[in-house]
Design brief:
By secondary structure, the protein is an alpha/beta fold. It folds into 3 domains: about 100 residues, OB fold (Dihydrolipoamide Acetyltransferase, E2P) (Beta Barrel); about 160 residues, Rossmann fold (3-Layer(aba) Sandwich); about 70 residues, Probable gtpase engc, domain 3 (Ribonucleotide Reductase Protein R1, domain 1), CATH 1.10.40.50. The protein contains 12 helices and 13 strands. Strand 2 and strand 3 form a beta hairpin. The longest helix has about 40 residues. It binds guanosine-5'-diphosphate and zinc ion (ZN). Zinc ion (ZN) binds next to helix 11.
Length: about 375
Amino acid sequence: MSINSDSLVDPSSQHELQPGLIGLGWTPFFARQLAGLEDTLQPARVLLASAARHHVQTAEGPRVAVVSGRLAHEAADRAALPTVGDWVGLRPGDGDGPAYIVHTFARSTCLRRKAAGPAAEAQVLAANVDKVFIVTSLNADFNLRRLERYIELVLDSGALPVLVLNKADVCPDPERFIEAAREVAPAAPIALVSALSGAGLDALRAQIGEGETVALVGSSGVGKSALSNRLLGADVQREGAIRASDERGRHTTAHRELFLMAGGGLLIDTPGVRELGLWSADGAAPAGFDDVEARAAACRFRDCAHDGEPGCAVRRAIEDGELDPERLGAYLKLGAERRYLARQQDVRARLEEKKRWKQISKRMRANPKQ
Ligand code: GDP
Ligand code: ZN
């Protein structure tokens, strides 16, 4: 199927949901955006983003593309640049050369964390992810507080969390872990699996619908690579046509990449998240603590800090053994972190706005007619 020949017949047809794109995660959300863009732009999904060039997938197959100078220049910060999972608009390159990425579509979801280092900058891990498999292993790695942070990260992104408890084969009493996990994520599906034996993998696959994008996150060593190999089937998947044009050698999880699954879904591999820095844009209360917040609603003071105030329903719940004090601790700590980040971002936003106006006035001086 060719997009361009279709659009010759009826220009509006390009704005409908094209079958070749749906399998890549194309939805009405993106189709509506395309309707407002120039007709010749070809939509594509970013499979792999590197400084030099991007690998993208169009309805017609894989392509290599580079970010146009203008798009790079106009990006407010690194988080605005096209990254793995993004939908972008392509313009054909010269001859056999790479295509140009001239537009990034607004993201339906955005998985990000605070970039390593002190700057208040977000690092986008993946864009347009529908579900995130939070992988943990059923051994010493299992840690409820870390799980809470991952859930927070995922809920913030707009994606849905699925808890994947891996290495079931070496765990004699998985029920204990499932119960604990259910406490911190009552609404999230929980999958007990073993990448080694294959147990539970069919149920996990069933979580990934046609055209749905899934990302794997979790600490190093929990079995993300083993799981994604299982989900993707043969390693052939990683060595397709696009590999031939790739300058790198074998696949490693040191970079993030979007893979098309044989079963119809899409899978993003993310490297082990070393620094679990949160990123939130609004300084709002942390997500995923409905149980704590339900108690807090009954506190005598609306702005109760649950720190010894009279009539504190949260403290009472702890005394009654109905709420884990460590969970309250995590809630308070995450809240403080978010407020701190929001303050930092405020300063950053002001600086950025100043920089943007500088650029605009520079362009206006260079081109007085605009
Ligand atoms: P990653 O760092 O999260 O990508 O983890 P890997 O996939 O590299 O796995 C780390 C180690 O755990 C490897 O030695 C795997 O063989 C092992 N592993 C992965 N999944 C399982 C499993 O389900 N059961 C057991 N026993 N070992 C596993
Ligand atoms: Zn209180």
